[in-house]
Amino acid sequence: MCDLHDQHEHESQPAGGTTLSRRRIMQMLGAAGVTTAVMAAEADPAMAAAADDSSPAEYQAPEGLAEDSPAKSAALDWIKANSGRITGLNAEIWENAELSLREWKSSIAEAEFLEKAGFEVEFGTAGFPTAFTATYSYGKGGPVLGFSGEYDALPGLSQNKGVGHHDPREYIHDPFAPSYGPGHGCGHSALGTAAAAAAAAVAQAAAKHKLPVTVKFFGSTAEETLIGKTYAVSKGVYEGLDAFLDWHPSTANATGWGTSTAMTAVTFTFLGVAGHGGTPLGNKSALDAAVMMATLSEFLREENLAPSGRLHWVINNGGDIPNVTPEIAEISYYVREGSPARVQVLLDKVIAVSEAAAKASQTKVQHRITSACWNQLPSKSFAELLHENMRQIGPPQFSDEAHQLAKELQESLGLPTKGMHDTIADLTAPNPVFMGGGSTDVADISWNVPTVSMGAALAPIGTKMHTWSTAACAAAAPGQAAVIAAAKYLAATAVDLITQPERLKAIKDEFAERTKGVEWKTALPDGYEPPMYEPPEWFLRKTGQSWPPENITWPPKRVVSQEKFASLGPELAAQK
Question: What's the whole-number average pLDDT of the chain?
């Protein structure tokens, strides 16, 4: 999921750099996580490539990287002049609140925004109906720059815009299972909008000042399930780029060159035998199996889950009514660790747990990998350039209304009422001990092209992504300020890559050095077919696509239990 930028935490340095806390000493010894300093390239090349030798206590961000130029001024002026269109697109996508792989209206809205800016748009990237690639070229021989756009919402996070307490916009009135509709609790309405605005601004500035460049915008589906980009990378969609610029809504305005966790998403399907709940003898409950698996997997935490790892699950199919023994049940896991190799070790243990649960419950189990991504490859030189642009432009211009909403949300959540983060965070070296965290499908791109990521404050200090409180902000005053600021940060940095070829060269040289001896290969299994939903006919007509795409089997293979009732042994003799 896109929770890489939930928080931006700074580790305070000891006075004089000489006194270390017990926790810090334990970290340096590797007792609290994965110590990248001792991670030999032969043992884990992905972790080694993402490591950094900079001392957090001694690092100072360089100056003089970002330069003013007529083209940069033109890009920033375009964003200012079109701020109403930009914030309007964010609001439109927020209103749609469409789930992964089903962003029918949102993808079209973003594509039309870029078409009006002179981009050529083609839908169906990597076979995904709601993915598209938009391209703008001026002149010949310039760099090829990529921007990342996302627009999917999250289930259950519906929230009314600008309301400081939990107030679902869509409440589903089910007498047995009330729930909430989807909402932009990760701020992807703003993410895709700001990236599209930055791409358009760079294109307009390049044309105005006759700077050769190719700008490519990748409208990516299903980021929340980490499918869209990971699969597209494996199909070569991002080949030919010189640099890739990424951002994500956050609680702070910050960038850096830390890594992320690699992740594999896996769904286990248990198959049993249905029967009346009042006569349960011989029934085989698939739900029992899923519950057993959930319980057993929790026992992995103490002795098999390092602080750099994460293991979380949800039962996404557990039956419908208590008086029918569930014949089919599914439980889905996100397995995260510092590298693909470490993920595989933990995944093997989770699979073993599923087999134990199936044996104990007398059910059958099968599993399928739904997505998998690497840890992100950092770019120190890219982050330094982006950070200086952020510092020169300044933090988002939050209004009193934005701070007031933030404080109301903080009070509602029991947090200190600090409002919005209205400064640019210092650029600091990453902790030498990797302590785990979120994952992103941008990570797979980062191993194929130099990539930078940054966060702009869209949600209040102390809150988190993937919450209704973020949805409250995403298209309200805080989010609209963040959209404009993020677009400026990305556009300014991209212009520097065009006008200062030495900066781009330094970034590419670092990338070549980091990837030396590392062979990226998709973490998706052989023969992988991505999940998809059949689009409505109007969407296919409007985007010029046909169904199904060539890379999937349609309709998908049915999952049907063929299990038999459990034996109770020989019948008891009748009493005389």
Answer: 93
- pTM for the model: 0.92
Q: Is 162 left (phi over 0), alpha (psi -120 to 50) or beta?
A: left
The amino acid occupying position 371 is: S
pLDDT at 33 over 80: no
CA distance 168 to 133: 34
pLDDT tens, position by position, 82-121? 999 999 999 999 999 999 999 999 999 999 999 999 999 9
Number of Cβ within a 10 Å radius of residue 212: 13
Give per-residue pLDDT as tens, 277-318: 999 999 999 999 999 999 999 999 999 999 999 999 999 999
Residue 218's Cβ-count burial label (10 Å; 0-12, 13-18, 19+) is: buried
Instruction: Tell how strand 213-220 and strand 144-150 pair up.
Output: parallel
Question: Of how many residues is the chain composed?
Answer: 576
The pLDDT tens digits of the residues spanning 343-385 come to 999 999 999 999 999 999 999 999 999 999 999 999 999 999 9
Pairing of strands 451-457, 243-250: parallel
Asked if residue 520 lies in contact with residue 89, where contact means CB atoms within 8 angstroms, the answer is no
Asked if residue 346 lies in contact with residue 309, where contact means CB atoms within 8 angstroms, the answer is yes
How distant is the alpha carbon of residue 250 from its chain centre?
Answer: 12
Contact in structure between 553 and 527 (CB atoms under 8 Å): no
Handedness of CA 426, 431, 435, 437 (dihedral sign): positive
Mean pLDDT throughout 244-252?
98
Q: In the chain, pLDDT over 90 holds for what percent of residues?
A: 89
Specify whether the CB–CB gap between 335 and 305 falls below 8 A. Answer: no
Strand order in the sheet with 364-373: 310-317, 328-337, 262-271, 364-373
Burial class (CB in 10 A: 0-12, 13-18, 19+), 369: middle
The Cα–Cα gap between 426 and 384 comes to 11
324 pLDDT exceeds 50?
Answer: yes
For residue 69, give both structure tokens: 């130029």
> Do residues 430 and 56 touch, judged by C-beta distance below 8 A?
yes
DSSP state of 449: S
Q: Which helix (H) or strand (E) holds 457?
A: strand 451-457
Nearest by Cα to 168 from 154, 182, 187? 182
Q: Which helix (H) or strand (E) holds 6?
A: none
CA distance 475 to 402: 11
Quick one: how far is CA 234 from the chain centroid? Answer: 17
- Section 181-190 average pLDDT: 98
Tokens read off for 257: 């060159």
In angstroms, the CA 538 to CA 123 distance is 14
CA atoms of 429 and 58, how far apart (whole Å): 9
Please give the Cα distance from 110 to 193 (Å, whole number): 7
Count CB neighbours of 322 within 10 A: 8
Alpha-carbon dihedral 456, 458, 462, 467, rounded to 10 degrees: -130
Residue given tokens 């059949």 in the structure block? 534
Coil, strand, or helix at residue 2? strand
Overall average pLDDT of the 164-192 stretch: 97
Backbone angles phi, psi at 322, to 5 degrees: -65, -25
Rg of the chain over CA atoms, in angstroms? Answer: 25
